[in-house]
Amino acid sequence: MRAAPACALVLVLVLVLAGAPAAAAADPAEAALAARDAYVSPRVLGSAAAPAERELAEVAAAMADAGRPVKLAVVLGPTGAPSLPAYARRLVRTLEYEGTLLVTRARGPVVAVGSRPTADMTVQMRAARIGAHANQVERLTAAAALVVPPPPDERGELLRPALGLLAVAALGGGWAAAVGAGRAARGRRRRAAEARARARVRLDALRAHAGALLRRPGLPPGERAHVEAALGAYADAVSALRETDDAERIAALDPPVAAALVGLEGVAERVGAPHPRGDIFAGLCAVDPSHGPAGATAPVGDRPDAPVCGGCAEAAAGGARLVPRRIPAGAGGLPFTAAAEPV
Ligand SMILES: [Zn+2]
Question: Could you tell me if 197 and 139 lie in one domain?
């Protein structure tokens, strides 16, 4: 019948279409790293996977801004490969990635594949006892800071001959100026990324405090109006944050946030609610202030009894090792509490 070839074609198409997502789903790390720079397997960290991945994404973003592109992953195992190094090499090949890829499992060393020889990076990581970090995020962050090469124009040995041969003879000062301009632009981007992450975590905390007050039963209408004013300041700052990539403009968003916090403290005091007392993160989850008020305690990072939200308490009870949200700083990162003081 004439319809047969068409049927066969449809069948082939169905098989191809069905096969493509199935292949990608076989290794969730590969699918994730094709789209972004960090991946944490929920099968390794459970409900702590998402916050850990966000931390790694921030580290990767800050390093990319510093001209040191990196992808960071915590995987269950070397899916479909005989060893973790073989798996990492395959990932770099499949993703056609030109930066440095760092992979680790729940426990054990970090494997790095990139422009530097893998053996050199391994020796360096062993010497620094990178594998001794029990926490996967800290392990990858420390490894990345150690082995990911600086941008080409900051490698003195490569830059000097280039300038000697090219810039002086042919290009005059133009090349040197272009190198300097590139570095200045990267510095600006990095400062903006740091200011933005800092502003974002403070805004998350402001919203969490306001939300907790709004959910209080019997909040008088006059006090509700004060809380809504604080939420208005929050919304203004969020949209202003979206529209700028200038570190100083981002920092200028902080005074209204601090003022809104003072307003919320007034409300809390008048209605007898616990209040932040000048510390924007007080009373909120020590893993991530955006989780909201803390109602329990659990080990977080190196604090044995940190205040945490219900979700984090549950994750800790299930064996997850909780770490505080990080904000980028230089080539690494800091716990979000580094943003506690107004600018
Ligand atoms: Zn939490």
Answer: no
